[in-house]
Amino acid sequence: MTGIAAFGTGGWILSEPFMQNAFIAGTAVALLAGLVGHFVVLRGQVFAGDALSHVAYTGALAALAAGLDLRLGLFTATIGIGFALGLFGGRGASDDVVIGTTFAWILGLGVFFLSIYTTRSSTSDSTANVKVLFGSILGISSAAAQSETWTAAGLILVLLAIARPLLFASLDPAGASARGIPVRFLGPFFLALLGATAATASQLVGALLVFGLLAAPPAAARKLTDRPWTAFWLSGALAVAAVWAGLALAYWVPTLPSSFTITGAASLEYATAATASWILARRARIPASPDSSNPETRQGARATAGSRHR
C-alpha cells in the first residue's frame, strides 16, 4: 500500500496486525520510558541514561556472540552496570567520571563482541546487529508484544512503589536521609531500574535511539510545569504521544523508518515546549507599558516625572 493510499484509509491503521502489535508494545514501553525519564531528568542523570542505552547494545551482542537469547544479555548487562554505577558513583547518585570511564570501556567491549559475532554467526542472522542498534517495532510478533507489555507493566509498578521516596530523595537528599529514607540504596536501585527500562525499550526503538524516549518527553514536561507530580504524568503522556505519532507517520509514509519518526516526534515535543517556555518567560519579564493614548495615563506619567525632578 502506498503512502497516499494508506493516508486515505488512516482510520483503519489498527486493522493491520503488525500495527496492533506495535501500538500495544509501543504504548506500554513509552509510558515506562516517560515515567522513568522524569526522574532521570529530575536527578540530573541524563548522561547515565545515555550510557546505559549503549550498554544495552553491548549486552545484546555479547549474548548473540555466546549463542544465547538476546534479551538475557540486554537485561543482565544494563541492570548490573546500572546498579554498579550507582554504587561507585557515591552519595546514591552516579558520577560523570565513573560513567564516562564505564561508557568507553563498554563501547570497546561492544566492538569486541560484534567482531566475534560477525565472524562466527554472520550467516545465521546478518540483520541482528541492525535490529539491536535501531530496533524493529514494526516487525515485532504478537508474543513479543505481549512479553514487552507485561515487562513494561511490571517495571512501572516497581517505579510507582518507590516513586514517593525517590522524589523526596531526588529533591532533598539530606532531608530524606534524616527522615529514614534509604537514599544510598535508592540511587543504585533506580539506576538498575533505568537499565531494565533501557533494555526493554531497546528492543523496539534500538539501543542508539532509546535515549530519545528517556530524555526528550521528560525534558519537555519539565519545561511546561514545575510541579513534580504533574510533570511525572505529563512526561509519560508525551512519550506515549511521541510513539503514537511516530508509528502513524511511519505507516502513512513507509519510506520513513519508525525509529526515526518516533525519536523525531519526541524531539519536536521538546523543541515546542522549550519555545513555548521561552516565550512565556520573556513575556513575564517585560513590564506592561503605559497606554500613551490614554490622557489620564499621560497626565499621571508627567506628574510622576515632575515629582522625581523636584
From TrEMBL:
Bilayer-crossing regions: 22-40, 47-66, 72-90, 97-116, 152-169, 189-216, 228-253
Entry annotated with the keyword Transport: yes
Coiled coil (UniProt feature): none
Membrane topology: Multi-pass membrane protein
Keyword Zinc applies: yes
Cellular localization per UniProt: Cell membrane
Keywords of the record: Cell membrane, Ion transport, Membrane, Transmembrane, Transmembrane helix, Transport, Zinc, Zinc transport
Region described as Disordered: 288-310
Task performed by this protein: Involved in the high-affinity zinc uptake transport system.
Family: Belongs to the ABC-3 integral membrane protein family.
Protein name from the UniProt record: High-affinity zinc uptake system membrane protein ZnuB
